[in-house]
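Tokens as discussed.
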């Protein structure tokens, strides 16, 4: 089956780089004067397998859906949506009475539009896959983050401890620690408000270079509290790694010293610490086109 690769025009480095590596067709964003999106595909896609590389944001979800709908109505055989970050993923359960299950609503909308396969990066909770009735590939990028931090800071691996900032990330971080043969510690985290958290350390990190890995940094309170407690408990140094840096606030970036983040979300600050994963995304699409394993790329 032939394939086509499209991308929705974006400011995001990861979209532009991946699109360039793959020689993809750019779909511009056009709007009517009243703000409604207008989509048209410049080439025929009949019976083709289409890859759509797009940044899904709270503002453009409908644009992405219209693009998918256009591809399906133009007789594309299959539409694979590649979105480096899935918004609303922290709302993966009803937190209270009369609240929505937003991650499930997003899954419904995307599937109803015609998406046949999703590829994303470090989804907030692995069980979000259960909201989808279609194949869902989650690229786990903690290892490239870990490698970059260790290499750039010339850390002696025998003195490194990997740290999970909460129970949610502990399985993923623990897995990397086991495969890298490093020490592991985790936090029991309690959140009192958007910016107030209290973390209790479980494990011994005295005399270690600690690397805290998390999927999301938003207000930075989780990372800041964890770093404070690690220093109080005798860490030699503390490095922070996250997949999705949701804040562009300079004050937050300045407080989060030694933070490394993937370039999955638009971000204006401290580009030097951002880790470009475009080549991983491009290789994932190559592997998929060629019917090869994706997980083997991360082993
Ligand atoms: C929570 O479960 C996530 O993995 C992150 O720890 C959280 O979203 C970080 O948010 P903030 O930076 O606002 O503490």
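Sequence:
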């Amino acid at each position: 089956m032939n394939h086509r690769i499209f991308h929705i025009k974006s400011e995001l480095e990861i979209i532009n780089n991946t699109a360039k590596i793959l020689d993809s067709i750019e779909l511009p964003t056009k709007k009517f004067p009243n703000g409604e999106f207008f989509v048209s595909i410049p080439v025929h896609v009949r019976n083709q397998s289409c890859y759509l590389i797009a940044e899904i944001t709270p503002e453009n979800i409908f644009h992405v859906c219209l693009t998918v709908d256009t591809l399906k109505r133009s007789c594309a055989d299959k539409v694979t949506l590649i979105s480096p970050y899935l918004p609303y993923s922290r709302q993966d359960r009803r937190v209270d009475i009369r609240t929505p299950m937003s991650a499930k609503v997003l899954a419904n909308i995307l599937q109803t539009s015609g998406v046949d396969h999703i590829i994303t990066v470090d989804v907030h909770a692995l069980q979000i896959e259960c909201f989808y009735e279609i194949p869902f590939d989650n690229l786990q990028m903690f290892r490239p983050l870990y490698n970059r931090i260790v290499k750039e800071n010339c850390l002696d691996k025998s003195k490194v401890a990997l740290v999970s900032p909460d129970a949610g990330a502990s399985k993923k971080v623990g897995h990397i620690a086991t495969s890298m043969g490093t020490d592991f510690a985790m936090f029991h985290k309690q959140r009192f408000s958007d910016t107030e958290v209290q973390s209790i350390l479980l494990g011994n990190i005295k005399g270690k270079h600690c690397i805290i890995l998390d999927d999301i940094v938003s207000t930075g309170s989780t990372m800041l509290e964890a770093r404070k407690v690690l220093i109080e408990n005798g860490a030699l140094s503390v490095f922070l790694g996250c997949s999705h840096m949701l804040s562009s606030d300079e004050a937050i970036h300045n407080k989060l010293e030694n933070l490394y983040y993937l370039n999955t979300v638009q971000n204006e600050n401290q580009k030097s610490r951002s880790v470009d994963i475009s080549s991983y995304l491009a290789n994932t699409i190559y592997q998929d086109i060629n019917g090869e394993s994706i997980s083997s790329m991360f082993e």
